[in-house]
Write a structure and sequence with these properties.
Elements: H1 4-23, H2 37-52, E1 66-69, E2 77-80, H3 81-106, H4 113-117
Antiparallel strand pairs: 1-2
């Protein structure tokens, strides 16, 4: 299993890359060089700002947009946007987010369900 640092990096990678691909924009690159909680929090803030800054109109054709991952490689996968989101992007995002949460809990960090699901 990846350590906490890498779990957060991968979860945020899925958040930004899935959003970007569905919007039809270039996926921003991050350095993956975080070493502290403050740096991880800054990474999360950067990804949230990117997602919040996406033009809603860019998602108009997202469900039917063709998404190709690892284009030109033997592991190339092709999806419709809807399939990409529901069968690939969200499961991976939630797996890594849940694993990061479990690592924190295991190490005595007092986080609970509302820290995970937020307020609504």
């Amino acid at each position: 299993m990846f350590a906490l640092l890498r779990q957060v990096q991968v979860a945020t990678d899925f958040a930004k890359s899935v959003s970007a691909r569905l919007a039809g924009v270039e996926v921003p690159k991050l350095e993956d060089n975080e070493q502290t909680f403050a740096e991880l929090q800054a990474r999360i803030a950067t990804v949230l700002a990117f997602i919040e800054g996406l033009d809603v109109g860019k998602f108009d054709e997202a469900a039917t947009r063709e998404i190709v991952t690892q284009a030109g490689t033997p592991k190339e996968k092709r999806f419709t946007g809807q399939s990409y989101l529901l069968n690939y992007g969200l499961p991976h995002f939630f797996f890594h987010t849940t694993t990061a949460y479990a690592i924190l809990r295991h190490n005595g960090v007092e986080v609970g369900k509302k820290d995970y699901v937020g307020t609504y």
